[in-house]
Amino acid sequence: MDPRKLRLGLVFAAVAIALAFVLPLAAGEPSLRMRPTAWPEVAMAGLLFLVAAWFADGRATVPGLVGVVLAAASSLLLLRDTGIAGSAAAGFWAIVTAVWLASAMSVVSLAAMRPIRANRRRALNLLVPLLFGAIVFYLWEVAVRGFGVPPVLMPAPSAAASRFMTSLPTLGADFFQTFVKGVLAGYVIGCGAGLLVAILAHRFEFLGRGLLPLGNFFSALPLVGIAPIMVMWFGFDWPSKAAVVALVTFFPMLVNALAGLSASGHIERDLMRSYAANYSQSLTKLYLPAALPFIFNALKINATLALIGAIVAEFFGTPTQGIGFRISTEAGRMAIDMVWAEIALAALAGMAFYGLVTLAERATTFWHPSYRT
Amino acid sequence: MTSSSLALRLQTRRSLLRHPLVERYAPVVTMVLALMVIWYIAAVAMNWNLVRDGFEREETPYTTTHVLAGTMSAERPLLPAPHQIVSTFVDGVFGYPPLAPRSLVYHSLVTLSATLIGFAFGAIFGTLLALMIVHSRVLERSLLPWIICSQMVPIVALAPIFIVVLGAIGLTGLLPKSLISAYLCFFPVTIGMVKGFTSPDPLQLELMQTWSATPRQVLFKLRWPSAVPYLFASLKVAITISLIGAIVAELPTGAEAGIGARLLAGSYYGQTIQLWAALVAAAVLSSGLIGIVSLIERGVNRRMGAH
Asked: Is A221 close to B247, i.e. CB distance below 8 A?
């Protein structure tokens, strides 16, 4: 990052803070100078931005970030004033602009750092996206509350979070219904069956050459459309969701595992031959380990597909539980904060699921070139 | 001369099974036939009780052959036989004028338009994102993790509120559906194009540097051409996902037209054959779209000098 650009950005942030003292916070409301609880923090943040602009290098990050936190906190406190929330004017948006500018500069200078120690690099790799996400959520919160967007359209993240906290039992029941019963059961059945059929197709070449084009064809179809049929066959409860998930996850696993099983090299296969290994021995000692990266690729693809399949299947009929059911009923009742809480739940569950698969992959395919760099 | 030609012919006759066409298509045809046989058996087994109960309710005498015939032509079977689905599909496509509300062509067109708009948005947005990520280290480190996280959010869960929110600001019809399609399909394009734009060798990049090429020249003369194979691979994934997005977006909105609406109606009124016909339409649509993308890919490859 060019230090001159960094300095310019931080100076602009400080100027925006200065503007906040001059411009009105909201029409007919006392300005920032008249608020003894707010102005010292904001002024402090402005000073910190100036200090950061003075350094304009790696040392600028800490004062810059402290200033960002101070200014962001005071702007959120100002929003508690009912006169400002919903009718914020130029002075308030000047603070928000300062926060945005200074945090963008800090993220940029952070991302440009290349620490030598591995654990610091890892911490930085985690910190940069987290900061980025925090800024996005801050801007969302401030925009919704500052402009007074009606909660029916778009709730503030804090409203969704508080709703999340107060309705934990409901969310827990929904999670259990959709995720533990529907998704996990279907995922295990679908991926297991896919792997099994792939092994059979690898063992018997004729079967493999017949199944591969069919598998490719089916994995490109919008299979979630089968959901209403499964609901008709297996009823409203979780078996129909598990069936959809199993069907949706089967073909990606089949295609990927088949590609993986034939990924082992000629030399390794000849070696197994020269050891007089029978098929099951070569399968467990050569083919399956060589197929692991491909299998994990399919498991990762399926992790997202499975959740989508289960939620779609819930649109076609459920017992009065489940993430998809709750979303459609609460959206009908215009309780959008609850909908967002459910979405957060689904996202968290999906990310945790994906993360677990990735951890398992790291633990079992550590030998693969892509992890050894 | 004669002996060799004779030998050759003998060989060909003996190895009719080894003929390249047979070798290539025999396994697939066998599998498809096996699937059909399994399907017919399953149709008989699943519809048996339904048909028999029907006979008993009407208290008409029946034999096994009657029930067997009944399972093949039931009006609302649990699992319709393939020929029923095909005839309903053909009837839905050719039996009505293309814009009649009962025509499958009409519903397919509605879904197709949302799919294509969403696909165009998603592909362009995904490519732009990949460009930005390749050119900026900051974005690579701060944005890429969030893009991956964004795919963990089951977007179909978002579909209903999306429709509510966009409906409240006066956007209805095609746009919300195509936005959902776009959200679903930008991801494979971004990931594929980041890989594609970074696929040139360091050697080639250094060569561009020795020619003091500007970043734009590097982009258009090196990065873009080497990303084309990745572009088409991800476009093929993206277009099917886009179709899924459009179909799913039609479910919670209670849209009255489109393949998704057809599925929903079929499930509400127990019209299983109609439901399966809509599924076949979706399958035809998706394989047709992939076929078009592959054709374009072949043409572009030929223009670029590949054989």
From this structure: no
Question: Domains in chain B, start-ordered, CATH in brackets?
Answer: 3-77 (no CATH), 104-303 (1.10.3720.10)
Domains of chain A: which residue ranges? 3-149, 164-371
Q: Which residues of B37-57 are buried (b: 16+ CB within 10 A; e: fewer)?
A: eeebeebbeebbebbbebeee
Q: Maximum Cα–Cα distance for chain A, whole Å?
A: 90
Q: Does A235 touch chain B (CB under 8 A)?
A: no
Of B294, B283, B234, nearest in space to B111 by CA: B283
Encoded tokens for B17:
């099974």
Mean pLDDT by 10 residues, chain B (307 residues): 48 65 81 88 82 79 78 78 85 78 83 91 92 82 77 68 70 78 86 86 89 88 87 88 84 71 80 84 88 91 77
- Minimal CA separation from B249 to chain A, in Å: 10
Q: A307 to chain B: which residues are within 8 Å by CB?
A: 154
Say if residue A344 is exposed, middle or buried (CB neighbours under 10 Å; 0-12, 13-18, 19+): middle
The residue type at A370 = S
Contact A16, A94 (CB under 8 A): yes
**Separation of alpha carbons A130 and A235, rounded Å:** 42
Task: Tell me whether residues A214 and B31 touch, CB distance under 8 A.
Answer: yes
Q: Can you tell me whether residue A26 is helix, strand or coil?
A: strand
Other beta carbons within 10 angstroms of residue A86's beta carbon come to 15
B264 touches chain A (CB under 8 A): yes
CB contact under 8 A, A312 and B156: yes
Contact B153 A316 (CB under 8 A): no
SS3 state of residue B123: helix
Q: Which of B138, B262, B293 has the highest number of chain A CBs within 10 A, making it the mutation to test binding with A?
A: B138
Interior angle at CA A235, CA A234 and CA A240, nearest 5: 50
Provide the strand spans (E) within chain B.
none
Q: Decide if B207 contacts B226 (C-beta within 8 A).
A: no
Average pLDDT over residues A136-157: 83
User: Per CATH, the architecture of A164-371 is what?
Assistant: Orthogonal Bundle (1.10)
**pLDDT of B160:** 62
Judged by average pLDDT, the poorest of A67-71, A270-274, A360-364, B263-267 is: B263-267
Residues of B in contact with A235 (CB under 8 A): none
Letter string b/e over residues A16-45, b meaning 16 or more CB atoms within 10 A of that residue's CB = bbebbbebbbbeebebbeebeebbebbbbb
- The answer to whether the Cα torsion of A221, B277, B113, B265 is positive or negative is negative
Task: Kindly state whether A337 is in contact with chain B, defined as any CB-CB distance less than 8 angstroms.
Answer: no
* Segment B283-299, tens digit of pLDDT: 888 889 988 999 999 99
Nearest-angstrom CA–CA distance, A128 and A138: 15
Give the rounded distance of the alpha carbon of A26 from its chain centre.
36
Burial of B133: CB neighbours in 10 Å, binned 0-12, 13-18, 19+? buried
Residue A304 at interface with chain B, using a CB cutoff of 8 Å: yes
ipTM of the complex in this document? 0.75
Residue A72 neighbours by CB under 8 Å, 6+ apart: A99, A138
**Inter-chain touch B149–A351, beta carbons under 8 Å:** yes
Q: Which two tokens stand for residue B79?
A: 């699992």
In A72-175, beta strands by DSSP E: none
Short-list B175, B179, B292, B153, CA closest to B245: B179
